[in-house]
Design brief:
heterodimer, A: about 425 residues, alpha/beta, Alkaline Phosphatase, subunit A, 2 domains, eight-stranded mixed β-sheet, two-stranded antiparallel sheet, 12 helices, globular, B: about 475 residues, two-stranded antiparallel ribbon, 9 strands, about 5% strand
Chain lengths: ~425, ~475
Amino acid sequence: MRKIYLLILLLAVTLSAEAQRAKSVILVYLDGGPAQTDTFDPKPEMGRNYHGNFKGVCKTNVEGIEIGEKLPLLATMADKYTLIRSLTHGSNAHETGHYAMITGDTSGGAVVYPSFGAVISYIKRDTYKGILPCYISVTSANSRFNEGGFLGNQYKSFDTGGKPESSEYEVEGIVNKHIDRQRMDSRMALLNNFEGKGMDKQTIDSLRGVNMEFIWGESREVFNLKNEPDSVRQRYGKSRLGQSCLVARRLVEAGVPFVNVRTTGWDTHKKHFSKMNTMLAVLDRALSALIADLDSRGLLDSTIILCGGEFGRSPKVLWEAPWNGGRAHFGAAFSYLVAGGGFQGGKVLGATDKTGEKVAQRPVSPCDLIGTVYLLMGIDPYGTLPHVSEGELPILPSLLDSKKSHGLLYEIIDIKKPDHEK
Amino acid sequence: MRRTILALILCLLFPFMQATASVRCSDEVFLRRAYLTVTGALPTPKEVVDFLDSPAENKREALIDKLIQSELGLKYMQMRWGDILRIKSEFPSNLWPNGVQAYNRWIYEQLMNNVPYDKMVRDLLISAGSNFRAPAANFYRGFQKRTSKNIYDNINLLFLGNREVTDNGNICFQQIKYKSTKEWKEEIVYLDIHKRVPNQLIELDDCTTIKLQPDTDWREPYVSWLTSPNNRRFAEVMANRMWYWVFGKGIVHEPDDWRYDNPPSDPQLLKELTDYFIAQKFDLRALMKKILLSEQFNSADNYTPQRLPAEVIVDAIASVTGIWSTYTSRVPEPFTVYPPKTRSTHLGDATVSSSELELFGKVSRDVSLESQRNNNITSRQLLYLMNSSALESRIRKSQVLQRIYLQSADIEQLAQRITLLVLSRRATKDEVALYSQYMAQNNLPLMEAAIDIMWMQINSNEFLYNH
């Protein structure tokens, strides 16, 4: 028993000694489940029943790494990111897959875990001093489960709402095009004159005061995309996803620790290839611009980028009716792109078999990926979180279970695996 | 020893407490309070005027009777039950939309027919069959890990307010089994009735012992013990929970944390309420009515204001602006789009949500604890109210406000109508003066003043709280 304590102590010392590499995380979440074989794990030799309409591949700037033919821009910068081709959780249901990928919990227990954005928001509750919320979703979080989990509402993401791709990006609560400072001031004066006593008046008054500073302070300019040269806006693409990625970069520059860029429409049971034609072009442009932009500003070293969904899609195309060329949910083997913040570039971790239907090498569980993100963010992946009735619970229960975890991703980060974990 | 001292102090204080009888709240305060408490909805301007102008002596009691039996009242009560029974299509209850619908309907029917609480709990716990056809059986499905321990822990929490189970009553739930059917997502809850009776005796916490008989439903003796009027705790927990539902604070608080070291704040009150509930044969409506007629509920100064629950705030904003959110269930097969103007209190499924509901703390139904509902006001919620384009555009596009503007000849009429709509009362002279001054000072046309007044009232604590 004592030995374990010593080990934990040792780990804590090692962790604090390792200067925290990453300051922020950007999760580019492809909601619905993107097809790994059309993106980061192409199978061109498998014939039309597998590769469907996308027969070709893009050779990347790293010898030996190929990605899907619809991602030519990302192919020019494979040295900046690593592809994980062996993610697996086995679930083909959206809600379960989403829960697994966003919490890292695959224990099947009764406790609802918080999303890793909420966990980071909780851990940094006292140390993060930025003006903006610690965890922001552009433009909205996936509300398929309670992502505050047992930590509570206050750690959920701040949803910006609005349309970043439009000429006027209205951020809920911050930017409201109808109301200028003067009108707001007179409204607040009217409210002050009206308010009676009681009903938490003091607390509310002080919160309103803080909000007024927030609304009219620097935060407003962070969201103002007119501050960007048009060439930059063009580079990301004038799509929802492209401009959301640009907002994410600006938020990271402002010091926000977790940004969730969620893009929907990836659940392509039908019309898969025609949809992918346009959606992959949008993704390619947005994600490559984000990586390159962060890199050129010297921010990639301190910013983790993750891109993937709740699961992948079936490597085998469903040509039959009613799908007529679609791909089904697939949780057995799928891919994620990771970059920056201490993740190395130019690598591929894990592999699938010839068809892409099974993990052939180095399986990676959701908890292994999220645990590694915690590690890079200076958060102990073996630490605990307080639960209202259950006491302290492990931050990643599945990481402690050798049947669920396959180990943190030391192969693709600069932190060495501690001796006791070998 | 400590208890004796406490009792002594209470005895000494009692005469004073009696003497400081609280001031009775006004009719307008009572009306809004009763509507929000019983139905989770604001009264309409017409309902406000009718009630305030009614000369009837017993109009408060008549209103309570009307509201408790109304569709809105029943549905709001159904939401409270749905919260603690964790009714949800997806994670973690995973009841699936058809199951959710059947389960909600069952609860609604219990409430509509005012089924006595003991019978309702009995029917819930002695349930078996298809999740679509025997709705109450969904009770046994909503567990991530379907062990007799988890089921028994939940029963203890819900009906005995017991968070830490130490006895072995879970054995009574060891016959429960599940099997799927060929129907998509249909599942049968059934009993392995011939399971071998374990050797050990069931010894419940209050020293009751149960001896299980072979080839019978083992739940039966437990549920009979649980729901018996002799099991005082069963009635106490419900009486206290109803008090909590009305006031936001239990006589025992938290209402699901009954321990010897967490005593009731007012033992006499709890006793009276429980005695009444048992004497009324577990009549839930009678229990609620008694609480709503209590001095505390009718008090001007002895009622603690409560921030409106998430669903109630969101619905209130929708009803005053006349612009309702559209809710859809993302669970496929079939995708469900709720009819227009569906109240969020009526959704019945915690999987269905919106940014606004999440912001104000809609219950996610992950656990059966009442404390999962967090009604503390946060700066983010205030940010939304102060400066969101979502609220601003609702007010600007509001046909209701447009109509008020067209009907009003001047700022006074306008202010009266808006106040009646948003704050469910008449505007005072001072307030009308404040609004006139505001309009003049800021040189605003009448419609813009209307927008600002509605914005201001929605932002006011008076609107955000049940007071």
